[in-house]
Design a protein that fits this description.
Blueprint: H1 8-19, E1 23-25, H2 32-39, H3 46-65, E2 70-72, H4 78-85, E3 95-98, H5 101-109, H6 121-127, E4 135-138, H7 143-156, E5 160-163, H8 167-178, E6 183-186, H9 197-204, E7 210-213, H10 216-221, E8 228-231, H11 237-247, E9 255-258, H12 264-275, E10 280-287, H13 289-295, E11 298-302, H14 305-318, H15 337-365, H16 371-385, H17 388-398, E12 400-401, E13 404-405, H18 419-430, H19 435-447, H20 450-460, H21 470-503, H22 509-515, H23 525-535, H24 545-567, H25 573-585, H26 592-603, E14 607-608, E15 617-618, H27 625-629
Parallel strand pairs: 1-2, 3-4, 5-6, 5-8, 6-7, 8-9, 9-10
Antiparallel strand pairs: 10-11, 12-13, 14-15
Helix pairs in contact: 1-7, 3-4, 8-13, 15-18, 15-19, 15-21, 16-17, 18-19, 19-25, 21-24, 21-25, 22-23, 24-25
């Protein structure tokens, strides 16, 4: 790429010959009308280029499906390059040929038999936007020297570096390399603990284009400038320590991509700190676990748009695909938006996991259903729900060890990495009710009190009652399950909407739902439905007419199941939270007037009145001196 006269055709043909792949000149794909304009010295407009680039992009897709190709194309503006880069089939390595205007003007003046007029050269230089990526070559040297420089860059430098070869890091590295990206991987060396991790990983995958390092400086030098480095390390202080170790080697324009579960406020802080030295920083949420990372996760990137333009094609290539074949990856917004969205993904995940767990518990210990029977019930439900979490639960209920259910040997003390709690904290900060997710977090907390729970069980000795309404119990339970799942999603998306407004992120809820339809842990048919519901509805999800009708049908089942379970001494924390949220949400008159009266009584905090306009505040002296004496 580059302006006319830099030698794109000459160098392109030499490079194609060296790589033994075809060469094509993008000018040959201009429609006749464009050629006529250029021959008359009339600059092309964007609408002239659109169809040309679209046609050229289709050709590139065809060439990539075969052996590849070298293409000479001006591609002066970033938006032109991005139009060509937005391909579902592969990647483009950009080689930017450039030199001073005077040198190229002298070259082009002597050219014959070409329809390009020299008076257009100035307009091309004015339009040229230097790419912040790719291989940059100064053309004030011989074609042979240029070719040698290109080949050295192609042969030695990796397009992206991955720092941290834990479970997710390994899987993402394999995903990147399997998709044709040249990648360098780094893992620290600790004697007798972490020895030759990166080198062993590369040796185990000889068929992939991987370079392995346990020396940080060598890792950095192996990367194409400006560098793209994906961090896959534990959230928190570890990220800051890694950034500190990298800082001595980084240069202006290098990009750090934090792919871990960092807190969104840490991401906002780090981006500002690194900007002072010209280092770019992106917070990118990645969901899907080990399998998703290897075969295609849901990816939630945020940061500057220019940073996304630089690596977006890489992220989209390795992401899962939705039912239309589009990548489950989309630019979400600035600074901490990506990690906030990932945090809420995990919050909704907490709610869904607890909902399934307590529904299983209800069936197993109240209805006395056998695990195999519960698996069959969930299998029937999942024909409608299409839930990944229900799917894996069915497999768990069928897994045996020594002919006994493995689940019964797993300690009932749930662990957590913090994202569910962060979601609850964010909801408290932003004043958003998050009943089901918060209940799921607290359920994990109380599960950790195993010793205390055993002592309490012995002292209280609550007995489980026999099940009632056996005939329609399963139907009511499924309706309670479905309504709770909807409410859990509704509260999560409500928090996303409020955070978007608070932090000026301009989040697209429909697009977030779309990238959560595959690759991630909470993928389901419900999520696919939300893609369309959020397209034509910007209010709270529970106000969507179709949802109103559905929840109205299920309300009695939801409240009756909660009532029956609590009467039988069976805890349903998330289902109960959903019922309470729904009843509060649909109450035109709540109990909060009593709260306001109490606050004003003991703290003179004031209150608003129903018979005065909102925003007018009152204070009452609630007792007389005589009453206070009493």
């Amino acid at each position: 790429m580059g302006v006319s006269g830099v030698g794109k055709t000459t160098i392109g043909k030499m490079l194609a010959n060296e790589l033994q792949i075809p060469f094509f000149d993008a000018d040959d794909f201009h429609p006749p009308a464009n050629v006529e304009k250029m021959s008359q010295g009339i600059p092309l407009k964007d609408e002239d280029r659109f169809e040309w680039l679209k046609h050229l992009g289709a050709q590139i897709k065809t060439w990539q499906a075969k052996e590849g190709a070298v293409v000479a194309c001006s591609a002066l503006k970033e938006k032109y390059r991005m139009q060509l880069q937005e391909l579902p089939s592969g990647r483009i390595t950009w080689i930017f040929l450039h030199s001073a205007y005077e040198i190229i003007h002298k070259r082009i003046t002597g050219r014959e038999g070409h329809y390009f007029k020299e008076e257009l050269l100035r307009s091309q230089y004015e339009a040229l936007e230097f790419p912040s990526y790719g291989i940059h070559i100064e053309v004030d040297q011989s074609p042979e020297q240029i070719l040698k420089q290109i080949m050295e860059s192609l042969e030695k430098k990796a397009e992206i570096g991955l720092f941290g070869l834990g479970v997710m890091g390994r899987s993402l590295a394999l995903n990147l390399a399997s998709n044709g990206f040249k990648i360098s991987v780094y893992n620290r060396h600790v004697d007798q603990i972490e020895v030759d991790v990166a080198k062993t990983f590369v040796a185990e995958n000889p068929e992939l284009d991987l370079l392995g390092f346990d020396h940080l400086e060598s890792f950095i030098k192996s990367l194409e400038r400006p560098r793209n480095i994906l961090l896959m390390v534990n959230a928190g202080k570890t990220v800051d320590l890694v950034l500190e170790s990298l800082s001595k080697y980084l240069e202006k324009g290098d990009l750090i991509i934090d792919g871990g579960n960092s807190h969104y406020k840490d991401t906002m802080r780090r981006e500002k700190e690194l900007q002072e030295n010209g280092i770019l920083y992106m917070g990118v949420g990645i969901s899907g676990g080990e399998e998703g990372a290897r075969n295609g996760p849901s990816i939630m990137p945020a940061g500057s748009k220019s940073s996304y333009n630089r690596v977006g094609a890489i992220l989209e290539k390795i992401a899962a695909k939705d039912k239309n074949g589009d990548p489950c990856c989309a630019y979400l917004g600035p600074d901490g938006a990506g990690h906030f969205v990932k945090m809420l993904h995990n919050g909704i995940e907490y709610g869904e996991m607890q909902l399934i767990a307590e529904t299983y518990h209800f069936l197993r210990f109240y209805k006395n259903s056998a695990p195999e029977e519960i698996a069959e019930i969930f299998k029937a439900w999942n024909r409608e729900m299409g839930s990944y979490l229900l799917e894996i639960t069915i497999n768990i209920l069928r897994k045996k060890e020594n002919n006994e259910l493995l689940l019964d040997y797993i300690l009932d003390a749930a662990k957590q990495k913090g994202t569910g709690g962060w979601s609850t904290n964010a909801a408290l900060e932003l004043g958003v009710p998050l009943d089901t997710i918060s209940a799921a977090v607290m359920a994990r907390n109380i599960s950790g009190m195993k010793t205390t729970r055993r002592q309490a069980a012995a002292k209280y000795n609550f007995m489980t009652a026999a099940p009632k309404d056996e005939e329609d119990l399963r139907k009511r339970l499924f309706e309670a399950y479905k309504s709770t799942a909807i409410i859990n999603h509704a509260t999560g998306f409500d928090l996303l909407a409020v955070a978007s407004e608070e932090y000026n992120w301009n989040l697209d809820l429909s697009e977030i739902a779309r990238i959560w339809t595959n690759g991630c842990i909470i993928r389901s048919k419900l999520m696919e439905d939300l893609v369309y519901k959020f397209k034509d509805h910007s209010e709270h999800l529970l106000l969507h007419e179709e949802i109103v009708q559905e929840i109205s049908r299920y309300r009695n089942s939801l409240t009756s199941i909660v009532s029956e379970a609590l009467s039988a001494n069976i805890p349903l924390p998330v289902t109960s939270a959903a019922a309470n949220y729904l009843l509060n949400f649909t109450s035109a008159q709540s109990s909060a007037n009593m709260i306001q009266a109490q606050r004003d009584y003991f703290g003179a905090h004031t209150y608003e009145r129903t018979d005065h306009p909102r925003g007018t505040f009152f204070h009452t002296t609630w007792t007389s001196e005589k009453e206070e004496d009493l």
